[in-house]
Amino acid sequence: MENPHARTCEELLRFYSVNPEIGLSDEQVEKSREKYGWNELPAEEGKQLWQLILEQFDDLLVKILLLAAIVSFVLALFEHDDQITAFVEPFVILLILIANAAVGVWQERNAESAIEALKEYEPEMAKVLRQSKVGVAMIKAKELVPGDIVEVSVGDKIPSDMRIIKIYSTTLRIDQSILTGESVSVIKHIDVIPDMKAVNQDKKNILFSGTNVASGRARCIVVGKIRTEMVQTETERTPLQQKLDEFGEQLSKVISIICVAVWAINIGHFSDPAHGGSWIRGAIYYFKIAVALAVAAIPEGLPAVITTCLALGTRRMAKKNAIVRSLPSVETLGCTSVICSDKTGTLTTNQMSVNKMFIFGNQSNDDPSFVEFDITGSTYEPAGQILLDGKAVRSSDYESLVELATIGAMCNDSSVDYNETKRIYEKVGEATETALTVLVEKMNVYNTEKFGMSPKELGCASNRVLQSLWKKEFTLEFSRSRKSMSVYCTPTKNKTEVGAKMFVKGAPEGVLSRCTHVRVGSTKIPLNPRLIKKITDKIQQYSTGRDTLRCLALGTIDEPFSPGLMQLEDSNKFVQYETDITLVGVVGMLDPPRMEVRQSIEDCRRAGIRVIMITGDNKNTAEAIGRRIGLFSEHEDTKGLSFTGREFDDLSPEQQSAACRRARLFARVEPAHKSKIVEYLQSHGEITAMTGDGVNDAPALKKAEIGIAMGSGTAVAKSASEMVLADDNFSTIVCAVEEGRAIYSNMKQFIRYLISSNIGEVVSIFLTAAMGIPEVLIPVQLLWVNLVTDGLPATALGFNPPDLDIMDRSPRSPNESLISKWLFFRYIAIGSYVGAATVGSAVWWYMFYEDGPQLNYYHITHWMRCEIEPENFNDIDCHVFEDPHPNAMALSVLVTIEMLNALNSLSENQSLLVMPPWWNIWLVAAIALSMTLHFVILYVNILNTIFQIAPLCWAEWMAVFKISFPVIIIDETLKFVARNWIEGKAGRDLRFMLKCSVIVFGWVVFLLTTVQWFIPNEIWNVPVYMPGDLQNREL
Q1: I want to staple 416 with a disulfide (CB 3.0 to 4.6 A). Which of 68, 80, 459, 926 is the partner?
Q2: How many CB atoms lie within 10 A of CB 895?
Q3: Model confidence, pTM
Q4: Pairwise CA distance, residues 536 & 539, whole Å
Q5: Helix or strand (DSSP H, E) at 69
Q6: Percent of the chain beyond pLDDT 90?
Q7: Is 342 part of the annotated catalytic residue set?
């Protein structure tokens, strides 16, 4: 039925054909279920396994690699020699693709599993009337259907949207903060709401799914179920996905050009004798080299490493109570420039607590003075102190505090319960009454010994002592007209000298008008207009300004009416019995800000992130909280910075857009406002994180770049979000943003690591082809290096600690280039050295190694002419050019140099002296494992046959290390330049010049030492022979 809030109870009962005393029949239930379905969230229909696998191959880099595998397989068919390595290469490529797909599928499946643990919040049981059951029966909430008659009472969670048809208690209070952000429970009634367009806050006769009963008992009819449909919006690709796509397109173009160039420059060698004089075989051979170049250029491990790094980031976030549902959203967090946060439960604790109170002390100028106390503790935990002028006092020393505690304990139907699983105290009942319960425990007016009590016992120990001294005979429940409630109590046998009393609690304006006296110690003093004004001014002071406390007046009727004279059935007459009240004191309470939020907002400000508070609560309360958490300064004028939903609606579109540019607070808003605010912020180029917990927040959460649902929120909000806060804490969002920035930084580091390494491989292949020297790296070796050897350190780079200044930088633009010009230069510089060193190690083995063949430059650049020009290759065994040792040297240098390059990638610009390797122990372990794997293929016979390499001796390993180590010095120099010139942070002082001098001197010493080692003395004396003179040289 549409608009059930505007229908009478009789209309609803007729529509569903139900008797409110006996409920639906089984036949009606079945028909209704066929029509409406189960009252539960349907499991999201996940993608089939084959769909997930295919998605992993829908990537440009993967497609290029797949093409390389097919070409390699075709080329293997043309091999005349029956070599095992011919077919190993394409199969290794395919295995790598399958491994990458498996990682991607596993991570996608695993990312959703954490969210399942949060479904515990859903109401599991409901109290329902059914014709087939006797009385009120408990059924699973998912079995409810529209038309069911349901009973709810204190502590119940509402299992579905329901219309109230009968209230058994004087009042029914509902905690619907999860839906509207109102920190105070809402009074409900059964009257018709004629406004068809009423907002949720005004639907006082409707109970909303997921909210809680704070006090009272009622009977309702189910009129709806949990909303399961959301407006479908197109899922936008995150900045990193877009950049990787662009990078893939650019890479494919560059690869094509380089491959064609390598093939073209070797056209003159197609007919060389090494290819049997066949031009076609030569062309195929160099095409294979070009394929190897493509394999080297494509960072095969990149998709898998990025996915793994994002997943590792989600697990770190989960430990900090931020559960990420969408892996790419982790990266987007680093771009966040605006955080739109709910107030209740996120910026505040959603745990109402008494912050201040006052009683009356000694008289001054014929009027009693105020004795004001501050109360510490901002949660439901019954721990805190009562402070007078900043010093802790014993409440038992003040008779008025003893009486105040008695009123708080007796005028109360709520309690606190210790949740063993979460290890926190939670409210049972109404928030303001729970705050009084906790206050009584903090006051401990009878000095109850609590040592050795369990947490559950600590939650009610002092209250039980007070409740044992008085017997609650009956309650005059709260009514909106008199704004108070009271209990009629008689003393137990322990206090026979005291007569019956009525304890009263209510809004100050309602109670004070019926007060005749104030309590001072054990006496009472008559009220006069001057004293009433002083009390009113004090309460006004509590209720406004920075505190904006919600005040309750507590009083006693020392000589109440006899119960026999009271008409308890008529609540309209309760006000007549609550007269001649003696005011004992006033307590001021608030939903306190979380202690860590102020620092988090300061962190956001430092990081260039604007925080906007969005709440359904009133503007004054929200602004007061805003000042306490640092959203506004203490005396800042909030005009133009703070708006109510109605004020915002009254603005023109241009003014609304301008308001969103500077606003820090929106109060009394509805979910529709959130969507509009997100739209304006996005039009300004902001990357927005939006929090929400209610069903109606889902569209705004889907619209924002980062939708953040509360762990205690609705399942619909969670399914629409990218991230869920398990602890509902704003500070967790800030931690997640910091983690997002760190993850993006780490991803840049391992992209830099992989790309610079692959550039080195490209350079080595290009140099080999251009110089015409024997092949130093074959495709299968390149694949092994790229996925296995490179992949492990690259993944470990995801564990890099965040830079110390990570939250001192402004949010990066989503349009920021993934690779800046300076970074590109660094890639080229490091890559060029990697390539040159790899080729140089093979050349060193051929020309300069004492135990090597000691050939000259002509020999190694014209090696294919060895058999047809014997006069130029005197006594040289041509099989030396097929020796696996040069390949082993080149591969070992490549692996070692890339391990050292991984150390360079600990930080983009910080020196290894500042961030030593052990700061990331995972990287050290990954390097050790990668080197171990390299030793395995080097020294296990069958493997070194497949990879066409041979074991190296100690002298050869020393050469490998000496050739590899300069990459550290080169990158340290580049980091020094970046810190002092590119970032422009260093001054040109004496200390700076000294650093420059040390680096230059170090380079000179290093280069001289390297040249002296690389080229032995006797080599300098070797004359240079031209090809025609080689027959005269004695080898």
Answers
A1: 459
A2: 26
A3: 0.66
A4: 5
A5: helix 60-77
A6: 28
A7: yes
